[in-house]
Amino acid sequence: MLHQLCHSAGGLMTATGTGPLAGVRVVELAGIGPGPFAAMLLADLGADVVRVDRPGGAGLGIDPAYDLTNRNKRSVIIDLKAPEGPGLVLDLVERADILIEGYRPGVAERLGVGPEDCLARNPRLVYGRMTGWGQDGPLAQRAGHDIAYIAITGTLGMIGSPDEGPTVPANLVGDYAGGSLYLVIGVLAALQHARGGGAGQVVDAAIVDGTAHLATMIHGMLAAGGWQDRRGANLLDGGCPFYGTYETSDGQYMAVGSLEQQFYDEFIRLLGIVDAAPARKDLARWAELRTVIADRFRTRTREEWTAVFAGSDACVAPVLSLKEAPHHPHLVARSTFTAHGGITQPAPAPRFSATPGSVRRPPAMPGAHTADVARDWELPALSAGPASTPVQEA
C-alpha cells in the first residue's frame, strides 16, 4: 500500500486507492484482444467499466473466470440484435464518458450503436474504435490478427536472427503495444478535450498505425544511416554481441545489454574475458566477440551467472519464464505481481502516489452485474427483459 501524501489546494490528502480515473464511466462493447485489454487498463485506473456482453459469450471456449483482461469490470448482457438491445446501449452511452468497440468498420453502425447514434445521445462522448487495419483503407474490411498487422509495418521483419524467419513476439507488439495502449492514450486525450469544454469525438485506433509509430526512433536511425534494413545487423536487434541473449550450461539464458563503455567494461570483467575479448568497436570482429562471450556463458548455470552479476552495473539479467517472474526479488519487493481470487497476475501499472490503482474485482462473469449497474447508472430498464438475462457458465 502506498503511504505517500500529496498536496492539494485544500492542504494534504491521503491516497484514496480508488485510482485517478475514479468517476469516469466507460461502456465496453465486448470483443477480444486489444479492446478488452484497453478497457482493463481504464478499469485498473479506477474507471467504472461496464462490459456489454452478448448472449452466449464470445464463443472462444475460454473460461471467463480466468480472463484477466476483464478484471475490475462489471458485466451486463444485452442482445444488440434484439429490438430493445441498441436502445439499452444508447441509454448507457447517455450516462457514459467513453465507449470502446472493436468491430469491423460499419458493424457498430449497422447494429445502431455507431458514432452518429451515440454522439447524438451524448455529444461529449469519446467513442474509441479498436481495429487492426483502421476505419478506412484497402484492407479495412479484411479479417486479420496481430501477426499480419505488424508484418506490413516492417516491425515483424526486423525481429529475429538474420539466418531464420522473423521471430513472432506473441501478440504483444501489435495487439497490446500498438493497439491497446494507443487506444487508451487516444480516449484519455479526447476525454481531456471534452471535459475542457470541447465536443466528444471518435478515436480511430488502428494497430497498423500504432505499431508503425512505435518504430519512430528506428526510422530516424535508418534515415541517418545508423540502422540497416535487415535483421540481426544492428545495435538493438541482436546483431550486436553485447546486446543479446546467451545460453548457460543448464540450457537457460542470460540477457546482456552492456551498451555503454563503462557498463561493457564491467561486463567483460565479471564474465572473465578481459584478455580474450577483441575490441568491441571493431565490427569486423563482432562474430569473434560473440563466440568468446557465448563460450564463457556456457561454463556456468543461469543461477551461477545471476550471482556473479548481482549488484553490478553490467546490465545483465537472467531470462525468466512467466511462472518464474513473479518470484524475482526485485519484482517481489515492488509488488509488480499480485494475487487476487487465487490467480497470480500483473498488478496495475503505472503507479500513482495519491490515487493508486488496484485489483478490486475478479474477471467479470457475463451478466453478473446487471442489477448493480441498473441501480448505479439509474437505468432500471437494463434489468428487465430477455436481453439482460445472465449467461449460465458450464
Question: Could you explain how this protein is built, in words?
Answer:
- The protein is of the alpha/beta class.
- It is 31% helix and 15% strand.
- It contains 13 helices and 13 strands.
- It has helices at residues 34-44, 85-94, 107-111, 115-121, 146-152, 172-195, 207-214, 216-223, 261-271, 286-297, 302-309, 329-333, 370-376, and strands at residues 5-8, 11-14, 25-29, 48-53, 73-77, 98-101, 126-131, 201-206, 243-247, 253-257, 316-318, 337-340, 343-346.
- The strands form 4 sheets. The protein has a 6-stranded parallel β-sheet with strand order 5-4-3-6-7-8, sandwiched between helices. Strands 9-10-11 form a 3-stranded antiparallel β-sheet, with helices on one face.
- A hairpin with a 2-residue loop joins strand 12 (337-340) and strand 13.
- Helix 5 (146-152) packs across helix 6.
- The longest helix is centred in the middle third of the chain and has 24 residues, at 172-195.
- It is elongated and about 75 Å long.
- The model is unreliable at 1-17 (pLDDT under 50).
Annotation keywords:
6-stranded parallel sheet, alpha/beta, 31% helix, 3-stranded antiparallel sheet, 13 helices, elongated
Structure summary:
Helices cover 31% and strands 15% of the residues. The chain has 394 residues and is an alpha/beta fold. The chain has a six-stranded parallel beta sheet, sandwiched between helices. Strands 9-10-11 form a three-stranded antiparallel beta sheet, covered by helices on one side. Strands 1-2 form a two-stranded antiparallel sheet.
